[in-house]
Amino acid sequence: MTSAQSSTYEGFTAEERAAMKEHAQEQKKAARRTSRAEKEAEAARDVLAKIAEMPDADRVLAERVHAVITANAPTLAPKLWYGMPAYALDGKVVCFFQSAAKFKARYATLGFNDPAKLDEGSMWATAFALTEVTAEVEERIAALVQQAVR
Q1: What are 19-66's pLDDT values in tens digits?
Q2: Is the pLDDT of residue 3 over 60?
Q3: What distances in angstroms separate CA 94 from CA 82, 111, 125, one per listed residue?
Q4: Taking each helix axis from N to C terminus, what angle separates 36-53 and 14-32, rounded to the nearest 10 degrees?
Q5: Hey, which residues does 130 pair with through a beta bridge?
């Protein structure tokens, strides 16, 4: 490796390394549980606990997003994913909430992964910035998660 290459690569940030460690812990914890019902109940409790740990601004957003998703897409199962509240269908994460504080970002994000059926032509959004959850935003989130699980 040349010195130019080695001096430009800084590797993962501390926040990214922490998220990867959280994901490894989540995987180990999930492997230890016994029944499917127990796994789902524990995962839902883990999501609520993670939301409760968030700074106030992110916690308020995450609580509203969680409520909208669970009410409008009951087939999605809450679980932690890289230390973030996420919602899965058949074990695959469809959408997730990323707090602004987690990666020192300007705003929180509601993101969608490949299993979400949001396809719209040749290009569509897979992440949305959240600064406030109003009634209009709740309607938009509800529509997105309903579309994601069709």
Answers
A1: 888 888 877 777 776 788 888 899 999 999 999 999 999 999 999 999
A2: no
A3: 14, 8, 14
A4: 150
A5: 108
Task: Check: CB of residue 129 under 8 Å from CB of residue 107.
Answer: yes
- Kindly state the tokens that stand for 125: 């959004």
Give yes or no for a contact between 98 and 82, defined as CB atoms under 8 angstroms apart: no
Place of tokens 């839902």: 44
Contact of 73 with 110, CB cutoff 8 Å = no
CA angle, 123 then 78 then 135, to 5°: 65
CB 80 within 8 A of CB 47: yes
Of the candidates 12, 14, 46, 6, the one whose C-alpha atom is nearest the C-alpha of residue 27 is 46
d(CA 115, CA 89): 8
Angstrom distances, CA of residue 134 to CA of 30, 112, 131 = 34, 20, 10
Element (H, E) at 96: strand 92-98
